[in-house]
Amino acid sequence: MSNYDVINSNAPRVDTPAKAKGKAIFIDDMSMPDMLFGALLQSPIAHGKILNIDISAAKKLKGVKAVVTAKEAGLIPYGVSPARYDENVFCHDNVRYIGDEIAAVAAVDLETAIAAASLIKVDYQELPALLTIDDAMAEGAPVLHKKYPRNICAQVNQEFGNFEAGLKESDIIKTTTFKSKRQDAAFLEPQGCIANFDKLTENLTLYSSTQVPHYVQRILSMVLKLPIGKVRVIKPYLGAGFGIKAGTNTMEIVSCLLSMKTGKPVKMNYSREQVFMFGRARHQFVHTMTTGVKKDGTLMALKNECYLDGGAYTSFGIATVYYSGSLLGGPYKLPNMKYDGYRIYTNKPACGAQRGHGGVIARACWEQQLDMIAEELGMDPIELRLKNMMVTGDITCNDFNMSSLGMKECIEAVKDGSEWNKKKGKLPKGKGIGMACGFFVSGAGYPIYRSDTYHSTAVIKLTEDGGTALLYTASSEIGQGSDTTMAMIAAETLGIPLSDIRIESGDTDFGVDLGAYSSRQTLMTGHAVYDAAAHVKQQILEVLAEELNISADEIDIKKGIIIFKKSQPDFSKLRERYIKEHRGWTDNPSADDPLTFKEASRIAFLAKGIISANGKYKPHQLGGKFKGAAVGTSPAYGCSAQIVELTVDEQTGQITIDNMIDAHDCGFAINRVSVEGQMEGSLSMGLGEAMFEEVKFDSKGKIINADLAEYKIPTALDMPPVKAIIVESSEPNGPFGAKEVGEGAIMPTIPAILNAVYDAAGVRIFELPLTPERVYQAILDYKNKKAS
Amino acid sequence: MKQIINLTINDKKYEVAVDANLTLLDLLRYQLGLTGAKKGCELGDCGACAVIMDGKPVNSCLVLAVQANGKNITTIEGVEDENGLHPLQKAFVEKGAIQCGFCTSGMILSGKTLLDKKPNPTETEIKSAISGNLCRCTGYQKIIEAVQSVSCEG
Lengths: 788, 154
Ligand code: FES
Ligand code: FES
Hints:
The structure holds two protein chains of two kinds. Chain A is of the alpha+beta class. Helix content of chain A is 29%, strand content 23%. Chain A is built from 21 helices and 25 strands. In chain A, helix 11 (360-377) crosses helix 12 (381-388), helix 11 (360-377) packs parallel to helix 20 (749-761) and helix 17 crosses helix 18 (597-608). The termini of chain A are far apart. Chain B has five helices and five strands. By secondary structure, chain B is α+β, with helices and mostly antiparallel strands. In chain B, a hairpin with a 2-residue loop joins strand 1 and strand 2 (12-19).
């Protein structure tokens, strides 16, 4: 067992009692007096020129309070990354996908708002809808955004080492192409927000289901031309986001605009269909990879070419197209890596960041290829991986520093846990076992906008009576358990029980925190919280030292009790003072009780006023000097290994996943149950993507499965038993040695399934999802080939 | 035209005037302030809006308020009693079965309905009882464990 009192335990989460009671407040549970409701008018065509917008009928409808278009919203471009601000609040020249926003209405109730929006008349000149990468890149195809010929939104060409030279030294060369499908994150809570603008003070407050209050605050300030100090963004409880809620959505700006026009609170919500139409989830990727290895299995070179179907706007895409190359730099020793990535604009909803940002499909393609290579070498796939595995201290060819890497331990844990040696290649026909590894950042090394900003700040202040520490952070509890993690770090650092911490989070008034994305909060916010708590503790110790005339080094705090490391001084005077301040209280300490944190902090308050401290964190300078070096750098990297067992029914092509085992190196588990929860949730999302998830479009660019019946995500019946094993490598750059788990755990899932399918049925499948039709066809082709 | 309906929610009697097209979910959430039932899809696909109506779990987004006339309804707000959290709620907290919590109300009500009928369900029975409740966060494992832990005690 660990030496810690609070962290590294299975402590129940601080937010879940309220959630179990149905009392936790999510955005749609909120309302305000005299609140209006907003509705959007969205484009019914995938591509066209706007010739005219007539809002007169909408304006006349009874109950309508405001109608806004690009005329009112202005044309300040925004987006996620300043390098590609390619969105406007409303379309003014062209519409670029079905769902593109043209106008919005605020009215006394939602029905009226929707009715009014439908009264807005728009004349279009339809343009050809470019629905595939090939269409969009074709000679003479219309261009979605003027600045980007051939609809190439972003292009990355990188080479580390010398690919061709590496290939020359290789004995086996393998090339495969792999294709995935567009995803929807299918979080359960549709996006929503309430904006409240006070015309008198010009203060704007936005309550929103966002993962990133800080970035939303900046975008609102920029687009609505309000000083940052006048804009406050508050995140209520969030029904998860998985990356999609990590950018500013149209409603967030529009509700503010409508509130500024009307002076009243304005509420807006996406319907489930609108969630799909807004998109911003995982791109469709087409990877072609060539890998060269020596006879002994040494990896020599990788060439990775990738095309991303980006949709109509950039969103996170510029980072995505970098990540889908750079994240193959680890966890294997790879001396030569060449990457060519192209993100293409198409007339579909924009894609963005989703759990495992940019790396999931690259990983799937490569880990399957590594298995094919292992087979050709006559090597066990695990042996091939272990042979090339990096260890703590290694640096990748693209300059990522493996300051801790428990990859080997992860592999061994799943190998033993699954009885790999007994099963691999020895299971009965139709049954298979497969493995894969993965690797991910613990927080982006740089903010999305170029800046020297702190990535996280935190404030801790003690109540005047010392019983409770109030922790304020602008970080985002989105379901992953960050509030509990931060409260545990604060409690451990201060030396008090978890129940004595009260945390408030997700509010830009609490400071700067870049939010929940890139698996950053445990490491980054965790550091800031640690810093604040350590400073608060030091102040208490200093006051005590002064009062008791001893050195602060001789004092500590543990489990809410003051520990005197040497001899115990006489603190009766302090206690008397404390009791005097609490006449009538029935819980005052008696003479032989040890001195408590509560008493000490009351004394400190009497000496210094409110005891509080700021904590802050930003990563040290990271990464190389090449273009795009920033994407993929991180203070630390998490990693994982997985083994999947499954059954393939050769008659139907139906795959049943029988069980999954996952080992993840999270550095150090602050909350063990939360770490397991992230692993189990990741595996389930990966299973869905591998097996059945695909956003489908008709020939006009309309999504045909924009609901949770036809867009299938795993139900309880689809999930096999999952065994989650925590590996702790103690990361020097993480608070208490902690690093990520939220996203990295999804990395090996898809390739482990692909590799198990091969073991079971002898077929390699290079396109997702693994529907029975696709698997059946592959088996048929394989049999025909064998027969001929 | 509004219609008057009478129903019992969490042992309390209500008489309310509702529009013919108002769903039970919207009645609960926006007219009665019982926001524990969540709105995830409004199409009966996700189970976040589940409540218990005359002993059976239903997706309240698919039930019209007028259809709930005369019915006895339990929402998540009615599961806790004067002794505090229901054992299943406690188990959800202790086993880590709650992440974002958006599916939780529906999950707990589905689990509770099963346990009320069958105090010792098999794993498959638990899985099918909650198969209409989607959860994107947990992978279901800890939810199943939470239901199992209560059934063992019972
Ligand atoms: S909101 Fe009722 S089932 Fe989804
Ligand atoms: S806990 Fe988030 S959907 Fe279940």
